[in-house]
Amino acid sequence: MKKKWMVWVGGVAVVVIAATLTVVLFMGRLVKSAVETWGPRVAGVSVEVHGVALSPWSGRGEVTGLWVGNPEGYKTPHAIRVERARVEVAPLSFLGEKLHVRLVEVESPEITLELGPGGNNLKKILANVEAAMGGGGGRSGTESKSSGERKLQVDRFVLKGARVRVGATALGGTVPVRVPDIELENLGAGPEGITGAELAQKVLAAVVESTAGAAQQAATSLGREAAEAAGSVGKQAVEAAGKVTRGLGELFKKRE
């Protein structure tokens, strides 16, 4: 009887070890698949990831080729493109109820702020995320919390070196705008943590605020430059500068 019991325990141990090794070996693929499945459902736009490399032993890894599309009706090919993001995860948290992410560092993302139907594209995506959280006809907050979605804790989120292009109907194209680095800390630090949608909402809200503020400063600066140009260059150049300024202004008149 004891021998049979030991054989049974050994068999269970083998199954558990095999399952754990499967998760370890295919961790990157699992994360990639999860992002590409969950992202569109929450953000309401296409989300693609080229690759995810993540070591369950050290917790270090990176995401490459992240592409967030635009809502329907917008002309630019994407809202956000990230060539590389570095992540650090507490290894033991892979097996826990809450995934503890120590760091997410997004390097030199390319962000496009475009005016289109219903306002600018970033605010539209943010509205989709908030709706998925229950703020706009989506799931209720109670349903979100009881859905069994795995919770997260992100100690530090950094977005640096962002390249932002601002576009509007009157521009006939886009103009580049510099955006200050963004840093968020202690997201989901409490015992309940936060959901992926809540994390996306906080990050997107910070991106929208920072991008809009920088773009508005650019519009003011361009307005001054257009006025100064009136005394030193020809009519065609002044009209072109004024066109850019008016186009940027559209983003703020209609962004709410």
UniProtKB/TrEMBL annotation:
The chain crosses the membrane at residues 6-27. GO terms for cellular component: plasma membrane. The keyword Transmembrane applies. Keywords: Membrane, Transmembrane, Transmembrane helix. One of its GO terms (biological process) is regulation of protein targeting to membrane. The keyword Membrane applies. This is AsmA family protein. PANTHER family: DUF748 DOMAIN-CONTAINING PROTEIN.
